[in-house]
Amino acid sequence: MTPTHLPGRVAIPALPEQTRTPPSPTALPAFNSAPAAEAQRLLLGCLRSLRWADRVAAHRPYPDAESLLAASDEAAYDLSPTDLAEALAGETLPPLPDETYAIAYTALSAAHAAYEAKFGHAFVICVDGLDENETLDHALAGIRSRLANDPEEERVVAAEELRRLARARLLDALRGAGL
């Protein structure tokens, strides 16, 4: 699906379907019983917002992974503009295969520079669930499409992408939790 921008509508490329392996049955109990500082460290690795991490950690224990993800989403939806700026400041370019950067460095870096100049923060997009060969196209389509947004529209889109990133990172962190 080709991204489009219509007046009054936020430009964002079609979101890929996410297929995630659920965390191991022992990961959630370990997260629930971890000391607050460890839980917050794990959460800050998912989304660099202290308010979000504090809020998600404070509502432990979670009965199941879906409850944790719902709390993560709710806390992400409630990020203030200051919280959003804090989270965006901790982001970098989306992870792409190493050879992709060599192949498309010029296009990606030029688009990213234009984005940062317009919006004042790093471009964020969740590429979770995409085939490795599709990530560059999705990232480039997203950045080009979103350059059509005004700053307020883009704040909404960036917040949604951060929520999706936090959700994907939280699942990955729980799968690899060494708490």
If you had to describe this structure to a student in words, what would you say it looks like?
This protein is mainly α. It is 59% helix and 0% strand. The protein has eight helices and no strands. It has helices at 27-33, 36-44, 50-58, 65-77, 81-89, 98-119, 135-146, 151-175. The chain is globular and about 45 Å long. The protein starts with 26 loop residues before the first helix and ends with a helix.
Shape: globular
**The level-1 CATH class:** Mainly Alpha
The CATH topology name reads UraD-like
Structural class: mainly alpha
Round the mean pLDDT to the nearest integer and report it.
Answer: 82
Work out the helix count. 8
Secondary structure: number of strands? 0
Brief summary:
With 179 residues, this protein is an all-alpha fold. Helices cover 59% and strands 0% of the residues.
What descriptors fit this protein?
179 residues, 8 helices, UraD-like, mainly alpha, disordered N terminus
Blueprint of the fold:
Layout: H1 27-33, H2 36-44, H3 50-58, H4 65-77, H5 81-89, H6 98-119, H7 135-146, H8 151-175
Helix pairs in contact: 2-3, 3-4, 4-8, 5-8, 6-7
